[in-house]
Amino acid sequence: MSQNDFSAELLKRAEHVEEILKKYLPKEEGYAKTVIEAMNYSLLAGGKRLRPVMMLESYKLFAGDNADEAVVEPFMAAMEMIHTYSLVHDDLPAMDNDEYRRGRKTTHAVYGAGMATLAGDALLNFAFETAIDGAARGTKLASYDGDTDNRYFAALKILSKKAGIYGMVGGQCADIMAENATDVPKDKMSDILSYIDENKTAALIESSLMIGAILGGASKDSVSAMEKAGSCVGIAFQIQDDILDIVGDQAEIGKPVGSDEKNNKSTYVSLNGMEAASAKVKELSEMAEEILKEQGFEDSFLGNLFDSLIYRRK
Amino acid sequence: MSQNDFSAELLKRAEHVEEILKKYLPKEEGYAKTVIEAMNYSLLAGGKRLRPVMMLESYKLFAGDNADEAVVEPFMAAMEMIHTYSLVHDDLPAMDNDEYRRGRKTTHAVYGAGMATLAGDALLNFAFETAIDGAARGTKLASYDGDTDNRYFAALKILSKKAGIYGMVGGQCADIMAENATDVPKDKMSDILSYIDENKTAALIESSLMIGAILGGASKDSVSAMEKAGSCVGIAFQIQDDILDIVGDQAEIGKPVGSDEKNNKSTYVSLNGMEAASAKVKELSEMAEEILKEQGFEDSFLGNLFDSLIYRRK
Fold this sequence. Notes:
Chains A, B: InterPro entries: Isoprenoid_synthase_dom_sf (IPR008949), Polyprenyl_synt (IPR000092), Polyprenyl_synt_CS (IPR033749), Prenyl_diphosphate_synthase (IPR053378). Chains A, B: This is Farnesyl diphosphate synthase. Chains A, B: It comes from Butyrivibrio hungatei. The structure is a homodimer. Chain A is mainly alpha-helical. Chain A has one domain: Farnesyl Diphosphate Synthase (Orthogonal Bundle), CATH 1.10.600.10. Chain A contains 15 helices and two strands. In chain A, strands 1-2 form a two-stranded antiparallel ribbon. In chain A, strand 1 and strand 2 form a beta hairpin. In chain A, helix 7 packs antiparallel against helix 9 (186-215) and helix 8 (168-180) packs antiparallel against helix 9. The first copy, chain A, is globular. Chains A and B meet through helix 2, helix 6, helix 7, helix 8 and helix 9 of A and helix 2, helix 6, helix 7, helix 8 and helix 9 of B.
């Protein structure tokens, strides 16, 4: 697939996710109207919708001819709500205190910090409402672990676990602590960074691929393989981000080049050097590719998507 | 049951909930240790554990001889986590900015506002992790709506819905908006207040009673009846709180008498007068009692608990 074809296809898929999201958005009415407006403002802030796109793709690859998008749609919407709530809370004055994201005012800049806190809470909660409701209505799926509805429970378990303290929130905590840490020995900092990349960045990618696989009828081994692929892609994505911070063009990546360095923030590059970082990205990229090949998805859109994420220029 | 016997029994039940909570607490280890410490600090701040106590009681009344506490325990823990996260976020500088709760430093006062935001998020997420995991492991329950595992899904749906924009979060939003509203006509403010009481205060009580009933094998009609009972108790509790704010003894209720009035906050009492407020509490209390009677739980501990909540002096 040419770069242009891929970009057009990715855009088409993001628009498809956008349509799905809109189906699940709560109506802006009643006395809770303001928090619902703030939720929808946050959710409809654009973005590439990479996690739902990956989930749907993983689902379709495993489900094959049995694919019924309705099975996975509530989980796609839930995933984007979770990703969005994490951005809303990250941007708060008590966290990163960002007034703008992708050139648009952040939720707290428009609605105030109190309402933005509440909107984030509402999004996280609504993610579970949406996924649970979808699971409860869902058509029966073939058994995963001996029980009838078990695939939905398995998907709900992954959704909740990877978003919490054993996933994204855990990574956010370690990130906050690392920023304030001084005099951490290099090998320990290397451990911490790899924990942060795995959890803050990779966890929701892993979760998206796994949920798609589970609902698509994958075996436990295949679900584990997709988890590993997600981990490789997420970590490579983060290291590439650190590389771009040094060598990238400011206009392209949208933040001042060298901002990590200026913030005195440890990165894979600052700890291991540029050459080792590039080699690591290549290694991880090849591992993800190998996993897709083993699963029989060698020439899939998902492979192109992984590549574009890892080797993006912006 | 005498007042002393009841108080002793309630304390015993709160201690029982405390033991259950401790079983579900995440271990304070790894690079996410700080956020887990903040979660546990928030969860183990004491309190009467009223919601889990009510859930267990509702469960036992409906399950009768078939009662198996393991079925309801994860949901009890999840309910207290949700209640706790809402307190942690309410206390934040961006919300009510409270430094103390029940004589103890609030979570943000100890861990900082960023970490407290994250701990609240982590608690809400962990509530769903805990309940979903419990539902996935749970023994099979008799059908609720035609499907095998449907009672667990029904319980998860109630748990998520009543905590979100169609429940507690909705009430919190309306509460924030009402505080900033000026020149709202009296009948509209009366509507808003009743929405706030129903959602901010009553929703988790309703949810606790309903989940206990659902998992205990109740019919849909009985679950609706328990929802109504929870609504009466929650709203009566709130109006009684407004009454105590005027007539109460400062030391007993723990906040300055007349603080609502001083804050210029509309309450049922300020809108309808003390006499109407007392009459309303009596009416709601009798309705809740009547519902328990209809369900065959006339002389239950739950009836005593409702009374103690509604007619408490502190």
